[in-house]
Write a structure and sequence with these properties.
5-stranded antiparallel sheet; two-stranded antiparallel sheet
């Protein structure tokens, strides 16, 4: 942190990376790495680590803000395929808290199910049994909801299908062959989705829906 404050961004990158190489990670570490890479002029690495920070902590506003600034400096201006509004709302709600938080809420609602069921089964007064019955139904619905979001958040962390272009410019080809036709060109910092792999090649999709093949060495997975 002191190296970063002193403007020695290369040393900051080296020291933060040393922590990561020892097997430690956190949203804050990735965010700091993103900042250090950005200040060092490594746009692709900066975007990569801002995205990694947001995978762990989707609601991290500083990382979101800095990612927007970094992405505005990329050369590729790619249109985004409109997302169905319900999917967008669900994704925003899921990313409002961390996977751990959804898991904790799931456990809490599971405990509430047990408490309300006991109240329903053991309650002597009719009013208590009603509270137990309706409480069980509500807690069950909330348990299903939070568990679904916890599983979805976990899958998004484990599913490393998104990647960032690391090379200054790459040609995306029609097939996994260097002699095949060039379809379009991508530049450093552009985020892509990997759909399949063949040897040292990846089939990628960009945000406007276009697909093609590029060598794996040009990409780094988020």
């Amino acid at each position: 942190n002191q190296a970063y404050i002193d403007g020695d961004f290369l040393s900051a990158v080296k020291l933060y990376s040393a922590i990561e190489n020892r097997g430690f990670y956190s949203a804050r570490l990735y965010y700091n790495l993103g900042n250090a890479f950005f200040k060092s002029g490594e746009l692709g690495k900066a975007i990569l680590y801002y995205n990694r920070a947001l995978v762990i902590s989707p609601s991290m506003e500083d990382a979101k803000h800095n990612l927007e600034i970094a992405e505005a400096q990329t050369k590729d201006n790619i249109s985004v395929v409109p997302e169905f509004f319900l999917n967008r709302w669900m994704r925003l709600l899921r990313s409002s808290i961390t996977c751990t938080a959804w898991s904790v809420l799931s456990v809490v609602f599971f405990a509430m199910i047990a408490i309300f069921m006991l109240l329903f089964l053991l309650g002597t007064a009719l009013q208590l049994r009603k509270v137990g019955f309706y409480g069980t139904v509500v807690a069950l619905l909330l348990f299903v909801f939070t568990t679904t979001f916890a599983i979805s958040s976990r899958n998004s962390i484990l599913n490393r299908s998104e990647a960032v272009v690391m090379s200054s410019a790459i040609s995306v080809k029609s097939s996994p062959d260097r002699l095949s036709t060039d379809i379009f060109v991508l530049h450093e910092g552009t985020k892509v989705t990997i759909s399949s792999e063949v040897d040292d090649w990846c089939e990628i999709t960009i945000s406007d829906g276009k697909k093609g093949w590029t060598e794996s060495s040009h990409l780094e997975r988020i």
